[in-house]
Amino acid sequence: MDWEKLEWDEAWAIVTKTCNYTNHTILSEALEKWPIDIFQGLLPRVYQIIEEINRRFMIDVRMAFPGDWEKHNKMSIIGHGVIRMAWLAIYGSARINGVAALHTEILKKQELKNWYEMYPHKFLNKTNGVTQRRWLLKANPDLSKLITDLIGMNWITDLSKLKELEKFTEDKEIIDKFIETKLNAKKKLVKYIKEHNNVDIDENSIFDVQIKRLHEYKRQLLNILHVIDLYFKVKSNPNLDVVPRTFIFGAKSASGYRRAKNVIKLINAVGEVVNNDKSINGKIKVVFLSNYRVTLAEKIFPASNLSEQISTAGKEASGTGNMKFMLNGAPTIGTLDGANVEIVEEAGEENNFIFGLTAEEVHDYNVNGGYNPWDTMKKTEGLEKVMNSLIDGTFSSDHNMFAEIYNSLVYGIDGNRPDEYYILKDFEGYRETQKKVDLAYRDKYGWAKKAWLNIANSGKFSSDRTIQEYADQIWDIKKV
Predict the structure, then answer these.
(1) Is 213 a residue of the active site?
(2) pLDDT tens digits for 344-401?
(3) Reduced 3-state DSSP string for 422-476
(4) Hey, CA dihedral for 375, 378, 379, 384, is it positive or negative?
(5) DSSP 3-state assignment of 360?
(6) 122, 324, 425, 460: which one is catalytic?
(7) Under 8 Å CB-to-CB from 295, ≥6 apart: which residues?
(8) Cα–Cα distance between 418 and 377 in angstroms, integer?
(9) Residue 354: which H helix or E strand, with range?
(10) pLDDT reading at 90 higher than 90
(11) What is the pLDDT at residue 30?
(12) 218 catalytic residue (yes or no)
């Protein structure tokens, strides 16, 4: 308007035909809200325009929902001293999409329900993808060569071709070659861990891996609590029949996220105790790989046996690490969250390990209550001992070091509900599912077939497919 001298209606029509909004997470910290007093002072003309956008928008809202003042208040772009940037994006966009089927449904039914009621034609799903050129061809040359020898090179630009690998599932010679590629990748990671962490790893142990951003909803804490429980069991019975396991973590936290940093501290403290306890005969090792980044991830994904995707159901928009594990032949242990749902649909629940509350059950607890973490801790075998180890000096001479983690789970702090990510609630289900992992891994060929079928059914999760869908259904652009 100011520069090109267009009238409002003409300018707004260009905006709404040009802009689209992809929601990448429902976490409140990602749905930006700018304080009016800061925004107005820095960007007075832009604020003036947003005010007019909102005035016109609210006319439409009042027509769509006559007399529903609560809804009008919630949907206003400007309110309670802030500008709600996501609301502005939705109103100004032609298309709104989530990044996994479950995520998009949650947007439509919960987080953006009012908007979906008003603009159902705007909403659609675009499940994320990863590029096989980096995460298989470059990161895992041994496996890539095996695949190319079997089905040719077309998978490099058309990942759906991996489906042809299914016909080799019962070919023992091929599966033996696949097992060898996995072992070679594990040997390389063993060498890296020895050099950087000075920990000796058994290459034949289960490489149980959780690598991703450190956030409470991703529940690295659930993982390490299970490690502590397993450690106590092996320590009390060194002859316990368990497959040796190496728990590998890699993560970075946001710079000001104190509790996330405390979880990193806990993982390292548990590793220090477990890795130096000779009484457990090396059956468990815990490794936190520092400075997690793409070049390190390229070493980890090919070597992984088990993919940890254990977020609180309904919180993970999609995940892409889960796809990289799948592509490299690591079955998933996880909740039905984000793209895990579609991974299981593609590869089969029998080839993965699913546990925990569903997104609907989590939503029900959030809305209606009825969950008592203290009771859950008391009733779950061994869990109270695990929790007490956070505050009794087992892993730190400073008994207050991990007290905040304990208190956040049992009592709730900073105005939050206790155990708001349902870590204690899902603990028993997670532990029982990890026992199934232990049993399944003992069948060498059975496990290899699960891994092979994950690779063969990972074709959907290429970013080539994702980008083509955006081009066709959102951006309306053609290949050149």
Answers:
(1) yes
(2) 999 999 999 999 999 999 999 999 999 999 999 999 999 999 999 999 999 999 999 9
(3) CHHHHHHHHHHHHHHHHHHHCCHHHHHHHHHHHHHCCHHHEHHHHHHHHHHHHHC
(4) positive
(5) helix
(6) 324
(7) none
(8) 12
(9) strand 353-354
(10) yes
(11) 83
(12) yes
Token representation of residue 195: 């050099």
Tell me which of 71, 72, 188, 213 is the catalytic residue. Answer: 213
> Which whole-number Å values give the CA distances from 102 to 228, 315, 319, in the listed order?
32, 10, 12
Give the model's pLDDT for residue 268.
98
Please check whether residue 314 is in contact with residue 337, taking contact to mean a CB–CB distance below 8 angstroms: yes
The Cα-based distances of 122 to 27, 98, 112, 348, 394 in angstroms read 21, 11, 12, 32, 54
Q: 0.85 exceeded by the pTM? A: yes
Work out the number of other CB atoms within 10 angstroms of the CB of residue 277: 15
Annotation says 212 is catalytic: yes
* C-beta atoms surrounding 305 within 10 Å: 22
Q: Which amino acid is at 153?
A: M
- What whole-number distance in Å separates Cα of residue 95 and Cα of residue 90? 8
The answer to whether residues 142 and 184 touch, using CB atoms and an 8 Å cutoff, is yes
**Identity of the residue numbered 232:** F
Contact 53, 11 (CB under 8 A): no
Element (H, E) at 22: strand 21-22
The active-site residue out of 17, 24, 109, 167 is: 24
